[in-house]
Specification:
Layout lengths: L1 E8 L8 E4 L15 H11 L29 E9 L14 E9 L3 E6 L2 E3 L1 H10 L14 H6 L3 H12 L2 H188 L4 H34 L1
Antiparallel strand pairs: 1-2, 1-3, 3-4, 4-5, 5-6
The chain binds adenosine-5'-triphosphate.
Length: 397
Amino acid sequence: MHFQRLRLSGFKSFVDPTEFRIEPGLTGIVGPNGCGKSNLLEALRWVMGANSAKAMRAGGMDDVIFAGSGKRPPRNHADVTLTIDNADRRAPAAYNDHPVLEVVRRIDKGAGSTYRINGKEVRARDVQLLFADASTGSNSPALVRQGQISELIAAKPQNRRLILEEAAGVSGLHSRRHEAELRLRAAEANLSRLDDVAQELEGGLNRLRREARQAERYKKLSAEIRALQGAVLHARWNEARLAAERLREEAAQAARAVEETARAAAGATAAAAKAEEALAPLRDAEAVAAAVLGKLAIDKDRIEREGEALAAEVARREAEIVRLDSDRARETQMVEDARAALARLAEDLEGLEAAVAEAPERIPELQAALTAAEAARAQADAEVERLAAELAAEEAR
Ligand code: ATP
């Protein structure tokens, strides 16, 4: 792999397109301080995939773009092209079709770098690997910058090993091994993820199988249910048909019954009219009977009232009888008393008559006493008679 040309445009102090030809043999660059000799070496490192701004003697990677000068405005992009002779076809298989490899790196302000190999866009890693396989690269110890010799003498064993590995041509293998390990780890991670996914899918498959079985069972049961529903509906339809026929028959019977009933109703209406006619005298009789009944009710009330009055009268009379009994007893006593008094008066009269006979001088006095006694006797007789009449009247009542 032989570097043929380095073309710069907008890179650091090389604002205009500049071509640096590297001919077979020894090529040297001569110039005053600050003319841009180191910028060329940095352009070489940069196009080979350098990713350290510090190695470019810049604060950030955008600083490699021409920043302007007193006479020239700044640029927004820079690109460096390295042309490599591939006549011996020792480039990686992917780029080995061409006799010349053209590696381009371009940077746009604020947008980062892009790489192309023979016009095809590639990753920075692809460019770095291309040069690593050829035992060179942006960090190759073959590229010696100012002051680097003294740094190499004082370098750590690790850095010296890098120099030796590059001299043995195995530094590319290290890079490839590292990349292969990364890929392997990524593949292992993918595999374990695939295992998880496979397990999930297996679980999903089992679930789907279960659901499929359930769906099959559901379909079968649905068909059975539909068949049974059809049978039930047919049986119901049959029942309904028979019921309809029965109802039609019943309706016909009912219609006949209605006709008969209508006829009977007509007969009954006629009979009712006749009965109505016959009812008139009965109604009159009923009115009379009602009047009689009313009168009888009034009489009954009256008789009841009279009965009550008579009962009261009877009670009163019975009480009166009791009273009269006592009166009669009393008056009988009085009659007896009057008779006894009469007897006594008779005795007195006999005594007086005897006295009159015995003493004529006392005749007027005795006559007066006799008259008084007869008057008393007459009075007593009258009283006896009155009492006897009264007693007889009471007894009669
Ligand atoms: P020496 O022999 O002293 O090492 P040199 O020839 O190697 O010098 P360089 O260091 O390559 O020179 O170049 C430095 C020059 O590049 C300076 O003049 C600096 O102004 C210029 N330069 C660096 N970066 C830029 C930039 N981004 N834009 C414009 N000019 C730049």
